[in-house]
Amino acid sequence: MHELPFVESVLKITMEQTEQAKAKRVVGVNLVIGDLASMVDESVQFYWDIVSEGTIAEGAKLHFKRLPAVFQCKDCGTKYQLDGQHLACPKCGSTRVSIVGGDEARLESIEVE
Amino acid sequence: MGTRTISIVENILDANDRIAQTNRELFDSTKTFAINFMASPGAGKTSVILRTVQYLKDRYRMAGVDGDVATTIDADRMAATGIPAVQINTGGTCHLDAVMLSGALPKLNLDETDLLIIENVGNLICPASFKLGSRLDVLIASVPEGDDKPYKYPKMYRGVQAMLLNKVDLLPYFDFDMDYFRKGVEVLNPGLSFFPVSAKTGEGLDAYIEWLTEQADSFLK
Ligand SMILES: Nc1nc2c(ncn2[C@@H]2O[C@H](COP(=O)(O)OP(=O)(O)OP(=O)(O)O)[C@@H](O)[C@H]2O)c(=O)[nH]1
Ligand SMILES: [Mg+2]
Ligand SMILES: [Zn+2]
Asked: Which fold has domain B3-220?
């Protein structure tokens, strides 16, 4: 359900950009979504089909670039992906870590005619 | 005509963050200390808020904003304590955003509000992404949800200044590994203020209220 506001923002930015570029039709929408953003591709597509109906973006193909959740240890520098059970550094056990990827959900570019 | 690609620089959340900043400036100008409570459904947001009002309403002029998908039940419960309360009906959206909040603010007399309590929509995923402009963002977890939540919803545990673990009166009935839970929280948000409480029995509330009072006083002074 939380995909809806995201999709609405994507459509709004798409409309602003196509108007500026005087494009006639949107054929592709390139999204970057991190695994920590908790968004499901199918839901994004579902809401997109609804909100884009009747606009020049109707029927545009959504392309998803998925980014894994990546942490980095501040002590030994190890980068690692989450396994859903452990958050600490798998190499040295440190809990001084930072999230370096997977947090984002954004519109990267659009393809227009 | 061929296909062209337009690169997008604007971040999806930029618009929300701008409005959140406007809300923040408004709160600063009216000297209103705004607190945003976030939690999953049923964790005890309303119960903690009612307790907070009970403790602090003689000390501060308080008001409440309640975000709910459809009903006014929680706003009514806040209003029943005697403080002005406004309901934001999110119409299906699973979090409050800065725009929704800014739309509700004119219904309150902020000039005469020291402490504004905001109850976000019950959800552990979305509210984390949408800043409101509040001074404090507080996460309420609860014992029955389980000790693995920081591991499953890491994002929610970042960007908050305090965390309450509610319903500690239920600890004897659940396999809740406090060390495992706290370790996860510590990784995600080192040094986070942490208060185990029970809104039901009142256990632990004194420490939380003392902390909140310090935060509010240093803003309001
Ligand atoms: N045992 C126990 N029950 C609690 C405690 N705090 C709240 N509850 C109960 O948990 C249920 C949900 O509490 P609420 O305060 O309505 O939770 P909420 O987060 O506001 O719920 P929503 O707004 O519906 O998402 C109620 O039945 C409360 O009585 C507590 O500390 N201990
Ligand atoms: Mg509630
Ligand atoms: Zn390490």
From this structure: Rossmann fold (3.40.50)
